[in-house]
Amino acid sequence: MSTLSGKTVLVIGGSSGIGFAVALGSLKSNAERVIIASSSQDHVANALGRLKTRYTTETGSSAEGRVDSRVIDMTNHAAIKALFAELGEIDHLVLTHGAGLAKGDFKEFDLSSAKARSPMDDRYWSSLQAAQSAQIKPGGSIAFTIGSAVHNPIPKWAMTVGAGGALDAATRALAVELAPIRVNIQWDHLPISGGREKFVRGLDKYHLVGHLGTPEEVAEAYLFLMKCGFITGETIKVEGGYMLEAALQF
Fold it and tell me: Which positions, given as ranges, span the membrane (predicted)?
């Protein structure tokens, strides 16, 4: 089995949910250094403690010296540049951040408002700035994240879906532009994490696998993208057969 031995992994959005699971999975895959980054100092500090505890509990080994954290506002492009300048070369960059949601009737949206721009600022432009600023070693990779609504749009989410679709398209362009650095994107269908639990309760029946995905299950796809040196420019769908189940309803 391929491992991440000797590799440095940065997970932006690594304080909870999928990002946290990717960080833990990277440690378990023998990454030499794992850095989690998020916008909240409290969340990052809490996540760092939980990450060390879980790794020690589940493996019997210590994560001391192998895991670190940073606080970063991903809407601040100067801060993004400064972060990567400080970290220097890394092997893998995983981005699971992006809280900007703009829900509303498109015909009534004020397209000049901060709310309308938030999905692009929080997810699209910040991801591109990170990809531009990152110093990825040869053989390394970048993995973006979007939601399944890009391929299965939700009413009144046009602004959010548009930002995700833009990042999806940019992934293929960056795979060509940044080669041989590998660039991929992954989308999931509402894995359970944080405040989503109440919203997604009862949705198991809509997935062919019979259950809603956990962060740990989804994280396995990110680990694959980091370890496999022969994949780039791809959109990986991790959604438990949700799209196929939806088709069966017709």
Answer: none
pLDDT value of residue 187: 78
Class of residue 155 by CB neighbours under 10 A (exposed 0-12, middle 13-18, buried 19+)? exposed
Domain residue ranges in the chain: 8-241
Q: Is the pLDDT of residue 42 over 70?
A: yes
Contact 100, 118 (CB under 8 A): yes
How would you class 133 by CB atoms within 10 Å of its CB: exposed for 0-12, middle for 13-18, buried for 19 or more?
Answer: middle
Q: How far apart are CA 121 and CA 22, in angstroms?
A: 24
Q: Take residue 107 and report the two structure tokens written for it.
A: 């015909």
CATH architecture label of 8-241: 3-Layer(aba) Sandwich (3.40)
- Give per-residue pLDDT as tens, 185-194: 987 654 444 4
